Amino acid sequence: MRLRLLAVVLAMLASVAGFSQQPAKAARCNVGVLEGQVRAGESFVRPIGGGLVLMLEPLASGWILRVLPEGRPRPAHDYAELATPPYHSVSPLLISTDFSFRAQDAIGWNPRRFRFAADEGSFARLLKAYSAYEASPAQSSAAQQGLAVLVGQAPEAVLTILDAHLVPGTADQARIASTVATHFLTTPHTVENPSGGRPTALGKLTWIRFRIVFDLPQGFKAGRGLEIKRQPCNR
Question: What is the pTM of this model?
């Protein structure tokens, strides 16, 4: 069972990695661009419009990217989480040393593509499909298909790490990490010494500077924090 799950995760990650290499189409779309930086243990929060905020939430292992409703109670699942499978596993939303990723692997997964629900209605439909998927016997193909259709309709975003500071890990690269973490040497970074002088197996991310480019669906009211541009459509 564990080997089967690993094979599924590797296949999904390979699909994510390969998707970023697809050639751009001729059509041009509106996108919103957001840049920022964040240090270990700190959060980054910016409104992106449509009643939503982008958050890099701190973890002991790095950060997790979330899209949340602005000024409302935090839901059990966020607007990026449900739109960005695989679930309960390695995710482009995790910029961290979870799942045996070393710090250099987390930086080497660059860029990262994810999707998000652009409004409350889309999120409600995703949540209903996700709940059916989680509750279905052996996560049936019908439930998977229903959820996959909604995920495929969600707008995309691309997070690119522009610069990073990190303490590298000493462990060998995990097989899962090797599928996606291929751009460490081409990502600007600064290597720092470990605190106390003792290196660790996975290392530590201490700071990142990043850019996120959001596909903006028709009718989406972008926030003032987004720079609006025209560029080739991702799909």
Answer: 0.86
Using CA atoms in the order 180, 15, 4, 177, what is the torsion angle rounded to 10 degrees? 0
Residue 39 β-bridge partners:
207
Contacts of residue 119, defined as CB under 8 A and 6 or more positions apart, other chains included, come to: 50, 51, 220
Are 70 and 51 in contact, with CB atoms under 8 Å apart? yes
Domain-wise residue ranges, the chain:
2-18+29-232
Query: pLDDT digits over 102-123, tens only?
Result: 999 999 999 999 999 999 999 9
Q: pLDDT tens across 153-208, in order?
A: 999 999 999 999 999 999 999 999 999 999 999 999 999 999 877 899 999 999 99
Determine the Cα–Cα distance for residues 85 and 133; give it in Å rounded to an integer.
Answer: 12
CA dihedral 113, 4, 177, 151 (to 10 degrees): 10
Contact predicate 176/165, CB 8 Å = no
As given in the structure block, the two tokens for residue 232 are 């080739």
Cα separation, 19 vs 15, in Å, equals: 6
Nearest one of 58, 34, 38 to 46, comparing CA atoms: 34
Helix 120-135, helix 141-153: angle, nearest 10: 160
Q: How far apart are CA 28 and CA 30, in angstroms?
A: 7
